[in-house]
Design brief:
The chain is an alpha/beta fold. It folds into 3 domains: 126 residues, Glutaredoxin; 51 residues, no CATH class; 85 residues, Alpha Horseshoe (Serine Threonine Protein Phosphatase 5, Tetratricopeptide repeat), CATH 1.25.40. It has 12 helices and 5 strands. It has a 5-stranded mixed β-sheet, with helices on both faces. Helix 5 packs antiparallel against helix 6, helix 6 runs antiparallel to helix 7 and helix 9 runs antiparallel to helix 10. The radius of gyration is 23 Å and the shape is elongated. The N and C termini lie far apart (57 Å).
Length: 286
């Protein structure tokens, strides 16, 4: 068994600044240090996936993610093990894990290090990452793959989509959101279904040509943006509606803004095109 790369080197993360937020109570997870990383944590990864989170009390976002990870460890019924690396107390370990910024998470599977994320993602995104880790570990004979839980309303929606009954699918997703308002997968499913309803039967070439000839017609511009999303023109759709927002006011501007926000929901939160469009929207509105 060998040490992780760069284990003997020091790390300088002093740019994070001085402590701003110190968590109260015991820190969640196993405290990882230069000694137990190789003697305990790496061997442990042969029996279960281990998720290490590099954090600092100086960084409130990393503290929040650590708390979230502890909650998720319970929700996953200990299917994986949480370890935490305080980069201030354990700079050697932070360097060994090639920490550049925090919060930074890595997975250990059969003593192999797999980088996961280095920003504070919401719970739903982290769950997707954890599911992939568990799947990968199970393929190596460690633990079991996650069991996908499908809500009854989601089953109804998926069956309706397969048969082309978009309105029934929309109603099913709305029922699920009425019961679980924070379910982001249901929100995504509803947004996708409503896009299918709006674009069903339309010809992209005809719609876009019509939009080029009627730049002042908001209804046509909304329809064109939908078609661009469907055909993969994410940036073009965003830019189209941003132009309309800049050139409109009152109820028209609000309508276009809300439509643009509904298109935002269809794009991966980590997509840089989404971040750029959100910034452009803020500039257009204020």
């Amino acid at each position: 068994m060998s040490n992780p790369p760069n284990f003997a080197q020091a790390v300088d993360l002093s740019s994070l600044g001085k402590p701003k937020s110190i968590p109260t109570g015991p820190t969640p997870g196993i405290e990882v240090n230069a000694s137990n990383l190789t003697s305990e944590i790496l061997p442990l990864s042969k029996t279960k996936p281990v998720i290490l989170l590099c954090w600092s009390a100086r960084d409130p976002q990393s503290v929040a993610v650590l708390t979230l990870m502890a909650d998720l460890e319970k929700k996953y019924q200990a299917a994986w093990i949480l370890g935490h690396v305080d980069i201030d107390a354990q700079p050697q370990v932070a360097q060994a894990l090639q920490t550049q910024k925090i919060p930074y998470a890595v997975a250990l599977i059969a003593e192999q290090i797999i980088p996961l994320f280095e920003q504070p993602y919401p719970e739903e995104q982290i769950r997707l990452v954890l599911d992939k880790v568990l799947t990968l570990a199970s393929e190596q004979g460690i633990g079991e793959a996650p069991q996908e839980i499908i809500e009854p309303e989601e089953e109804e929606a998926l069956a309706a989509l397969e048969s082309g009954n978009f309105e029934i699918a929309e109603a099913a997703y709305k029922k699920l959101l009425a019961r679980k308002p924070s379910d982001n997968f249901a929100k995504l499913g509803l947004a996708q279904t409503q896009l299918l309803i709006r674009t069903n039967g339309l010809d992209a070439e005809v719609v876009l040509e019509e939009a080029s000839k009627n730049s002042a017609d908001i209804e046509i511009q909304l329809r064109a943006a939908d078609m661009e999303i469907v055909t993969g023109g994410v940036e073009r759709a965003f830019e189209r509606l941003l132009v309309v927002i800049k050139e409109s006011s009152g109820d028209d501007r609000t309508r276009v803004k809300n439509h643009l926000l509904s298109l935002f929901a269809l794009v991966d939160p980590a997509d840089p095109r989404l971040a750029a469009a959100r910034s452009a929207l803020a500039n257009a509105l204020f």
